[in-house]
Amino acid sequence: METECTHKQMNLHGLAPLEFTPCGQREVIAKFDGTHISADGGVLLLAEVENRTHVVQRLSQCFTDYRHPELIEHSVTELLLQRIYGLALGYEDLNDHDQLRHDPLLATAVGKQDPTGNGRSGRDKGKALAGKSTLNRLELTPEDSIQGHKKIMADHAAMDDLLVDLFLDSYRRAPKRIWLDADATDDLIHGMQEGRFYHAYYHHYCYLPLYIFSGDHLLCARLRQSDIDAAAGVVEELDRIVKRIRLRWPKVKICIRGDSGFCRDELMNWCESNRCRYVLGLAKNSRLKTEISKQMQKAEKAYRETDTAARVFKDFRYQTRNSWSRKRRVVGKAEYLSKGENPRFVVTNIPRSEVNGQDLYEKLYCARGDMENRIKEQQLSLFADRTSTSKMRSNQLRLYFSSFAYVLMCALRRMGLSGTEMAKAQCGTIRLKLLKLGAQTKITVRKVWISLSASYPYAQLFRQVFDNIRTYPLLI
Question: Is residue 73 located within the same domain as residue 186?
Fold first, then answer.
């Protein structure tokens, strides 16, 4: 006879038993009736990181809750923890939470006092966490009014500041120099969302979000319409970020880096007026190619002699005919490959006395390519492109949620994975090897007992990550 718990679990999924290929003489039958079993045992590591960084706790302070205090079942902090842990665990869709709300392990990580939800009444009995409708209301509250059940207001400016503050807090002492990398990417749109435009370069309807990173730290994720220049708004974002950084680190040297889409006179003038260095890609044209024609001939000759790619660099002063307000230092790379000429150019205000042209290009400019990996990591692993609501404001909020999930995962990497073979692992790999771990939960009056899979192949690594995190003090 099925127990009450098993009966409810089967009703929840509504699925018949699965009959797999027999194992010898034994039938193989599977049911979705395992009570208190989770596929996400590694969420406990995320909870330990959160308890030492308060990333989501601080994020909750960017919201104003107008709900009646006596009627609140899920606090803003709990809603955000559930949503952001869900993204980190690979659950991009709010519909997933109608099943996840039954998971006592996730409820334990969120901090629910009754992880089983058995203390709740009616149809919510056994559901410790919020469902999709409650989480959806969190995302859809308008900016300037409270409507129906939508009573939690988000302060986007406060979230922007928090991303910078979390970056600053990650350092024990001020660095001598930091690089701020700016880039834009496409966020494909499938519906009729607000701000929908066709982008000729990407050949589809999309948003054009702006990202600013420093290393693997995310400082800005701004959702934008795609009918704009790639560099639109970057000066305003950098001005805000740089001012906040210098309040904490007044002596730090700041360098701005970006591809040719950000090579605009406005940005370069701003850097020159605000004590910031810059290294920006410069789109090639006939004048620039003529400038390095002799170097290209040398590169071609070297290639013909060695049958390997050859590079020759030239350092010169250059000014556009109309768009630049002054002459600036440009480094040209004359490169010859098997497919022919491959000229490239960068413009900078870093003087030659500090770095020569070849090192400027190869060591300083080319390092910006790692930022593109960070954007892919957030979009592919943490669903930054899940912008399917009808309004840009709510899509921006989804982008914030993805951003703070990324920040939390980076904190796990920085605090827990340092010194391990996964020290530089991407978020998707961290999820696969550390977070997606079978676990069974048993709740008693005084303890939450968690049995992790005995056949888990990364048990030693998991223990090492846990020990690394525990070296950091708990924040009260």
Answer: yes
Buried/exposed 61-82: b ≥16 CB within 10 Å, e otherwise: ebbebebeeeeeebebbbbbbb
- Kindly state whether residues 310 and 380 are assigned to the same domain: no
Q: Is residue 12 part of a domain?
A: no
Which residues touch 119 (CB under 8 Å, ≥6 apart)? Answer: none
pLDDT score at 13:
61
Domain that holds residue 298: 285-342
Please, are residues 105 and 38 in contact by the beta-carbon 8 Å criterion?
yes
Residue 395 carries which side chain, given as an amino acid letter? Answer: N
* Residues 162 and 120 grouped into a single domain: yes
Question: Is 464 within a domain?
Answer: no
pLDDT at residue 149, as a whole number: 73
Position 10 scores a pLDDT of 43
- What is residue 406's predicted lDDT score, i.e. its pLDDT? 97
Q: Are residues 50 and 181 in the same domain?
A: yes
Please tell me the distance from the alpha carbon of residue 89 to that of residue 434, in angstroms, as a whole number: 10
Any domain includes 188 = yes
Give domain status of residue 48, yes or no: yes
**CA dihedral defined by 457, 459, 460, 462, rounded to 10 degrees?**
120
On whether both 404 and 429 belong to a single domain, the answer is yes
pTM above 0.90, yes or no: yes
Give pLDDT < 70 ranges for the chain: 1-14, 144-145, 148, 476
Share of the chain above pLDDT 70, in %: 96
Task: Give the number of other Cβ atoms within 10 Å of residue 154's Cβ.
Answer: 20
